[in-house]
Amino acid sequence: FLNAWFRTSMNLSSFLVSVDPRESLAVSRGGLERAGRLGYDEWAISLAGNAADAAFWCGDWAVVDEMVRAYDPEETEALFGGTLLHLAVLVEASRGRFAEAEAILRRADAVVGDSQDPQVRASRSVASAYLGFARGDVAAVRSAVDERTRADAPIVDAFWLVAARAAGWARGVAWDQGALGRGRAPARRVPAT
């Protein structure tokens, strides 16, 4: 019964992140707390990833930092813990701390190794593309979105989001953390550079 409950929490929170990230955060945190309390560590790490994903889009970056500290993938040796580090890359890139984001990406690479898991590969590619986007480096975004990763079904939504944001950036549209915190991604016009 509990495995089904955790799987349902994972699937629901994953779906909700693009529809209602605040609700996704509530669902994933509820599952995370239950998994932790009952000793289901693998589920806890996976749900922490969903919570961090939702928190990023809510603009609650402190939750991402908290999840990375609580479920340090280098300590837990969980493959999906690497995706927590990928989310930390998004946060640091959004903060403009590019050197820190690159260092975290290297840590994540060490954790996940040469994993062929499509979700892990997708997560890594999204982190790389987002880092390139945050820097304003269109070539890095293009490089991260290669043929192999585009073929992986789990990444379609995340890549189209990155691509839409990169396209907006190219048209002189900026995104702000406050807009993300409202669970939407409205843009404000800024002068093109």
Verbal overview:
There is one protein chain. The protein is mainly alpha-helical and 193 residues long. Helix content is 74%, strand content 2%. The protein is built from twelve helices and two strands, in the order H-H-H-H-H-H-H-H-H-H-H-E-H-E. It has helices at 2-16, 21-38, 41-58, 61-70, 73-76, 81-94, 98-112, 118-135, 138-144, 147-150, 156-170, 177-181; strands spanning 173-174, 188-189. It has a two-stranded antiparallel ribbon. Helix 4 runs antiparallel to helix 6 and helix 8 packs antiparallel against helix 9. The longest helix is centred in the first third of the chain and has 18 residues, at 21-38. The radius of gyration is 16 Å and the shape is globular.
